[in-house]
Design a protein that fits this description.
mainly alpha; extended
Length: about 100
Amino acid sequence: MLEPLKEKLARVGEILFRPFSSAAPFDTATWAPGRELDALLGEDAWSFKLASPPSLLLLVRAVRGLVAYLDALQTQVSWRSLVIEALNRATPTPRAPKRRRE
């Protein structure tokens, strides 16, 4: 289903992950992924949307909600820093193996 879009997928990724591409705070008011994707994909936009797994819908809704709040609060955050912080908290700290008592 995505084969005709293969040449455009790198650019799609750039558009969707733009908030994570910089360590600086990102202004969501300047980000219009829907409009950019429609312009890039043209008639294939629906094929791209329909090829997504249903589980992705929850992530899309969560991101859209976050963007709406950031826009309403006129606030910018460093998305990259937040993700790195969350991953660091979620990743267990490696521990040295316990020595066996003999």
